[in-house]
Specification:
alpha/beta; Rossmann fold; 7-stranded mixed β-sheet; 8 helices; 12 strands; 24% strand; globular
Length: 278
């Protein structure tokens, strides 16, 4: 991997996300007033799969404005959120104060790859990575090594993500438009973020595609034991016109009779031994 190009791309993304933060904080999509009033942003399948977190030390990598992080705090965890956007971390800290969770939550501004140094050898019972995070990381092998190093012995990674097959489908959701195995960085120039709100000033960003096998293999190579891998036939938004809203579950699915593909996945991987240095 070209480290200098990776650093340039990550800085481009950081500036892009700094611009997204005030838009997201004011958006109906993120609904910070509703969260302050007691809402949770965790999805039911995440709560079920992670289980009871009471008293556990949980680290949320790429936490953005901290709503998922603080939702775990509301379920009893002692949480740390880390994000490369200083503006997002400032918003998360303010949200922790506003919700009375400041004593059980802290937020750190840092790149994921610098997490071990910034957290100075701390270890966690759970490392959580939320939906839509991995496409912003150029090196999944290095990410897995960072995660393994942050886990206490017996600790677990929990990852919930959009399925990489989604990225291969055309806008209609019916045809394959991209090579699943193409891992070259993709540069985009969009005037808006994915929420409601005004246009961005920093409109360019870079994403990386990570096939599912690459993610699982990286975790195994880092010394983690995969406990489960669940592929889900639903997603959280109207990704394609063909999807139908399941109001009861609050998700979107392919209609009955339509050939489906997995739209999301979740996995848990446990640190059962000291990772082997590479």
């Amino acid at each position: 991997m070209d480290e200098s190009a990776s650093a340039v791309h990550r800085e481009l993304n950081r500036r892009n996300w700094e611009g997204r933060v005030p838009i997201h904080a004011a958006s109906a999509f993120y609904d910070l007033p509703g969260f302050r009033a007691g809402g949770s942003t965790l999805r039911p399948f995440e709560i079920e799969e992670v289980g009871d977190v009471t008293g556990l030390r949980l680290l949320h990598l790429q936490c953005h404005m901290g709503q998922d992080t603080l939702s775990w705090a509301r379920r009893g965890a002692e949480v740390t959120g880390l994000d490369f956007s200083a503006s997002a971390v400032d918003t998360a800290r303010a949200l922790a104060r506003d919700t009375g969770l400041e004593s059980r939550a802290r937020f750190v501004a840092a790149d994921v790859y610098d997490a071990a140094d910034v957290l100075a050898g701390e270890r966690f019972d759970v490392v959580y990575t939320g939906i839509g995070a991995l496409v912003w990381l150029p090196d999944i092998t290095r990410w897995a090594e960072v995660v393994a190093g942050l886990l206490a012995d017996g600790g677990r990674l929990y990852l919930a993500e959009f399925h990489p097959l989604m990225e291969t489908l055309d806008d209609d959701g019916r045809t394959v438009a991209r090579d699943y195995f193409d891992r070259t960085p993709q540069r985009y120039d969009y005037p808006h973020t994915y929420t409601d709100g005004p246009p961005l000033r920093e409109t360019e960003h870079v994403e990386w595609h990570h096939p599912l096998g690459t993610v699982v293999s990286a975790l195994a190579a880092a010394g983690l034991s995969v406990e489960f891998l669940h592929e889900h036939g639903f997603t959280l938004f109207q990704a394609y016109p063909v999807l139908e809203r399941d109001e009861a579950a609050g998700v979107h699915r392919f209609p009955a009779g339509h050939p489906g593909v997995p739209l999301m996945y979740s996995l848990a991987a446990r640190r059962t031994s000291v990772p082997v240095p590479r």
